[in-house]
Fold this sequence. Notes:
Blueprint: H1 9-40, H2 44-49, H3 63-70, H4 73-103, H5 111-123, H6 128-137, H7 155-167, H8 170-178, H9 183-194, H10 196-212, H11 215-220, H12 229-238, H13 242-246, H14 250-253, H15 258-290
Transmembrane segments: 12-35, 77-101, 113-134, 140-160, 187-209, 261-280
InterPro entries: MetI-like, MetI-like_sf
Protein name: Carbohydrate ABC transporter permease
Amino acid sequence: MSYILKRSKSDYVIDFIIYAAMTLFGLATLFPLYYVVVMSITPIAEVLRNGGFVIWPSDLTLDAYKFIFSSNRIPTALWVTIRITVIGTFCNLLITTFLAYPLSKKFLPGRNFVLMGIVFTMLFSGGLIPLYIIVKETHLLNTIWALIIPGLVSAFNLLIMKTYFENLPAEIEEAAKVDGCGDVQTLFRIVLPLSAPIIATLGLFYGVGHWNAYFSGIMYLTDKELMPIQVVLRNMIVTPSVSSELNVNASEINQLPPETIKMATVVVATMPILIIYPFLQKYFVKGMLLGSVKG
Length: 295
């Protein structure tokens, strides 16, 4: 016999309040992105007519995007960012996997000591000045490796991946070893194919971190040809002249307001991550749940 749960008026009121609050929070989250996109495609006449604040443009134009791509500055910075993100994420996942897999084995000698050292780095660090000195003495300044090697492993992500490996059935690895697989073969042929959710999740974490990083670029880079897109965007915001940052004549930029060019740059710097995220979303929740640290 099935029972139908009757809902009272208070239940409907609570549901309405929850959905209304979630809708408001969603709109508050999406509005800044919507405003940036709208400002980047609004003609200059309408921007000036509305005092620089446009919600629904009556006309659309791609002049700002044509302008920023007509300069070599933005495409170069975008290409540098793509290289840093792809190479950095690959190196991050490679080293994190090679550290997490042996640390997931309880029989590893010195395992607890190494884990204590990893946790220690989450609480204490040498600071920015010692880190800068190390990067300088290793001749990494003004190279893209200065943006990759200092943050090669995240202790938090390492612990998540280690816990994920610990949750995998031990019988699978034992069967692989019975069939003649060594530790390296077991890792690549058995463990990694089963670890797609956690790899995709941590890859997303690492990739977004590399894509949005700008402080390391400010610290370690002086060559403008090596600066990622976020550093260029930051310089466009803090410097009074957008033309000097884009290496164009001031007369060329008079046709567009600086704010419109900045908004178009924000869209270019943000859109690739927004496009990639939906393809990894299905792995995100599963990877975090299975790889979460148990208390």
